[in-house]
From TrEMBL:
Start and end residues of each CTLH domain: 105-152
Assigned keywords, A-Z: Repeat, WD repeat
Keyword Repeat: yes
InterPro entries from the UniProt entry: CTLH_C, LisH, WD40/YVTN_repeat-like_dom_sf, WD40_PAC1, WD40_repeat_CS, WD40_repeat_dom_sf, WD40_rpt, WD_repeat-ST_regulator
Organism ancestry: Eukaryota, Viridiplantae, Streptophyta, Embryophyta, Tracheophyta
Keyword Repeat: yes
Protein name stated in the entry: CTLH domain-containing protein
Organism (species): Hibiscus sabdariffa (roselle)
WD repeats: 267-300, 311-352, 523-559
Region: Disordered, residue numbers: 1-21
């Protein structure tokens, strides 16, 4: 364990440990002399003095390590007496005698002695010894300068620090302090307190550097407990709550009731098939587009959704919508027609984007909201300023007539379907093209909120999850939904986007756990193919689905069902807006 087996009584070890922790907590110094001869300072493995060597039902927890970590936690929490009693009763010291001496030397500023002791605490790696010596001598150098002992500081730098050949850039920085008058400060009554704090900080840095068997890292028990809780949470396939509280008294397990599987509301304002829908980034609005040549902006409340604006003006069916980064504006794209930009607050059409002789097939915003981009039916991708000026156009096989279009959060990569079985990732700055190649025709895709993953829907009724950060890698596959004729869209959703949702031609909404790929819900209710789904990014308990049955369904938790039904679906009134230019 990197400690010391010696003849000192437990009470003496207890005193050293408790004093050391008291110093760490309040920055005071120790005046007691250290007992023990130099021969006692050679570290030897710590041994348990009684009881079983392991604890726990699995037999994997070493008792000595367990007790030392508990003692460390007690001292860190300020329970000095309890920590000392644990050391005394168990006969297992938190630190060996030599480590206690070393820590005391650091806190009292006995730099030369501490460097000598460092070599006696059981270290075998010369690199670690040099790095630790560097930190100690650096503190010595800074305190000598602080005391205006410039020549002594210079000697320490030249004869002690530099020969270590560690962190040369820092050595140059330290040398500049000698000629910098601003570094040396006038002594003040608070200087001793500040010095004690800096020595405590040095001790914390040394704890990080030295092997944990010698000096247990700060917060080790807390880290182990947090790690166990996180693993339990990640293993819970239904975990979907914003409540971050987790109890240590029981194992964590969420119920199926955390998944939005209860129908809250049916929205019936469209007069034809609803093809696309998307929640705004802030979750306060929902936009839908339909074969009826209209788009609708819905307002989202805690208890339901109501119609805010119905957007008219397109001459063809609307294939998609896209929210501006600040959610103040909305793009709507007609199928091989034009793009319209709308003000969300007023419902006014602000501008129409078109290219003579060509039709638009998709639309999107730049991450900063200063320009938009679109796929055209000549398979090119174009960018426009908000005033309609064309910025750039990538010709060639860049997109398909029916294609999704995305841009990463940093604005560097535009993603589109360039061929039936390929997705193009175009780096705008480096002019580098990468391709996701599938064995089956691709029907749609969706980008995760962090721009690291791409969800790809295929003709063979599979959904593939790709990691697009660095080397392209297929991560997972999801199966169960039905797709034979139509474009079916899927999405990421839930807390930390831990779930995958998808429409389906069998009128169901499917939900999988993203990590395990397990199908956890299939929601009935629609009477036609479910074309698109969208999960509210601000509310993990709200999901929307759009269908050929001309309706949008809002899904939530069981306990919200009653209150949602009391909400009038069109309480704001239907507001028809003229989209003419």
């Amino acid at each position: 364990m990197g400690g010391v087996e010696d003849d000192e009584p437990a009470s003496k070890r207890m005193k050293l440990s408790s004093e050391e922790l008291r110093r760490l907590s309040n920055g005071s110094t120790i005046k007691e002399a250290v007992a023990g001869s130099p021969g006692d300072l050679m570290a030897r493995p710590l041994q348990s003095e009684g009881g079983e060597e392991v604890v726990g039902s699995k037999g994997v927890i070493k008792k000595v390590e367990f007790v030392r970590i508990i003692a460390k936690a007690l001292y860190s929490l300020g329970y000095i007496k309890s920590g000392a009693h644990l050391e005394e009763e168990s006969g297992i010291p938190l630190h060996s005698s030599v480590v206690n001496v070393f820590m005391r030397q650091i806190l009292e500023g006995n730099w030369d002695e501490s460097v000598v002791t460092l070599r006696n605490i059981g270290l075998t790696d010369e690199k670690t010894i040099k790095s630790a010596s560097f930190l100690i001598l650096e503190q010595k150098f800074l305190e000598l300068l602080d005391e205006e002992k410039v020549m002594d500081a210079l000697k320490t730098l030249r004869t002690e620090i530099s020969p270590l050949s560690v962190n040369n850039s820092r050595v140059r920085e330290l040398s500049s302090y000698i000629v910098s008058p601003s570094f040396c400060s006038v002594r003040s009554p608070k200087q001793d307190t500040l010095r004690a704090r800096s020595r405590n900080k040095l001790l914390e840095e040394l704890q990080k550097l030295l092997p944990p068997t010698i000096m247990i890292p700060e917060g080790r028990l807390e880290h182990l407990v947090e790690q166990a809780l996180v693993l339990q949470r990640d293993a819970c396939i239904f975990h979907n709550t914003l409540d971050k509280e987790m109890s240590l008294y029981t194992d964590h397990q969420c119920g199926r009731d955390q998944i939005p599987s209860q129908l809250l509301q049916i929205l019936q304002a469209h007069t034809d098939e609803v093809w696309f829908l998307k929640f705004s980034h802030n979750g306060k609005y929902l936009a839908s587009s339909s074969n009826d040549q209209s788009a609708i902006i819905w307002e989202v409340y805690e208890t339901g959704v109501s119609l805010k604006h119905k957007l008219s003006g397109h001459q063809k069916a609307l294939s998609s919508v896209s929210w501006s980064p600040d959610d103040h504006q909305l793009l709507t794209c007609g199928a091989e027609e034009v793009i319209r930009r709308w003000d969300v607050s007023s419902g006014e059409c602000l501008r129409v984007y078109e290219k003579t002789g060509f039709g638009m097939v998709s639309c999107g915003w730049s991450p900063d909201g200063t320009w938009i981009f679109s796929g055209l039916n000549d398979k090119s991708i174009c960018m426009w300023e908000l005033d309609g000026k064309e910025l750039e156009c990538w010709k060639g096989q860049r997109t398909l007539k029916i294609s999704d279009l995305e841009i990463t959060a940093d604005g560097k990569q535009i993603i589109s379907m360039c061929r039936e079985t390929e997705i193009l990732l175009l780096d705008r700055e480096a002019k580098v093209e990468r391709f996701i190649e599938e064995d089956q025709p691709i029907t749609s895709f969706s980008l995760s909120r962090d721009s690291r993953f791409l969800l790809v829907n295929l003709l063979n009724q599979e959904i593939h999850l790709w990691n697009i950060e660095g080397d392209l890698k297929l991560v997972s596959k999801y199966r169960g939904h039905k797709r034979t004729r139509f474009i079916i869209r899927s999405c990421f959703g839930g807390l930390d986007e831990a779930f995958i949702a998808s429409g389906s031609e069998d009128s169901l909404v499917y939900i999988w756990h993203r990590g395990t790929g397990e199908l956890i819900e299939s929601l009935p209710g629609h009477s036609g193919a479910v074309n698109c789904v969208s999960w509210n990014p601000a509310n993990p308990h709200m999901l929307a689905s759009a269908s050929d049955d001309r309706t949008i369904r809002i899904w939530g938790l069981n306990n919200l069902c009653t209150s949602a039904k009391q909400k009038e679906p069109h309480s704001n009134g239907i507001h028809y807006c003229n989209g003419g230019t």
